[in-house]
Specification:
Chain A: One of its GO terms (cellular component) is interphase microtubule organizing center. The complex is a heterodimer. Chain A is built from three helices and no strands. Chain A is mainly α. Chain A has one domain. Chain B is mostly helical. Chain B has eight helices and no strands. Chain B is extended and about 50 Å long. The chains are: A mainly alpha, B mainly alpha.
Chain lengths: 73, 137
């Protein structure tokens, strides 16, 4: 039972590693942490198109915060 | 950074907001009177505004109709199209690796993840969205 769970964990880890490599080659800007959050959101049924819009919007928002940080420093 | 053990959508969106703030200078922010919590709340609202607007968008919009052909293309084929683009751009090695990883994904752990196609779709949608790393001269 425990061995089956371990096998599944290893399979998930390997799949995540491959997904991260694909993500890097495609220059998506996702690191392992954000990729794993996205995978979990997809598994919760979130539409990938909606999720990609959320990620792009969050980047815009944080970029403008960073820009304002630089202009005030 | 807080850890999120739950898998609820709200917790995961909060985690996504936090991860987008990595490398942020909170010390300097707090000197300017901007609280960490305030920025988190702003990002969280922003994320949910976009998410909800997409969820409740009708499928009958013109944009949806015009992009129907692409939308119905399987995620794996979209990645292969991106690989073709890499080849056209002269990045043969990257294209080879991309196709190799894609094959690996479909051969091996044929479903360690239940929503593999949705994740590939997301990666295809985000392709090229990050700033290019600076090239060394």
């Amino acid at each position: 039972m425990a061995s089956a769970a371990n096998t599944n964990m290893n399979a998930v880890r390997e799949t995540m590693d491959v997904l991260l490599e694909i993500s890097r080659l495609l220059n998506t800007g996702l690191d392992m942490e954000s990729l794993s959050i996205c995978v979990r959101l997809c598994e919760q049924g979130i539409n990938p198109e909606a999720l990609s819009s959320v990620i792009k919007e969050l980047r815009r928002a944080t970029d403008s915060l960073k820009a304002s940080e630089n202009s005030t420093s | 950074m807080p850890k999120y053990n739950g898998d609820s959508i709200t917790e995961l969106i909060s985690a996504l907001c936090d991860s987008s703030l990595s490398g942020f200078s909170w010390k300097r922010r707090s000197l300017c009177g901007v609280s960490q919590e305030g920025i988190r709340r702003t990002l969280w609202k922003c994320a949910f505004r976009v998410l909800l607007s997409k969820l409740f968008q009708g499928d009958t919009s013109k944009a949806a109709a015009s992009s129907y052909a692409l939308a119905s293309t399987p995620a794996r084929n979209k990645i292969l199209m991106l690989s073709f683009n890499l080849r056209v751009a002269g990045c043969q090695e990257e294209a080879e690796r991309l196709e190799c990883f894609l094959a690996q994904l479909h051969e091996g752990a044929s479903s360690a993840l239940t929503e593999l196609d949705a994740v590939l779709e997301l990666l295809a949608l985000l392709a090229g969205s990050a700033p290019q790393p600076p090239t060394s001269l």
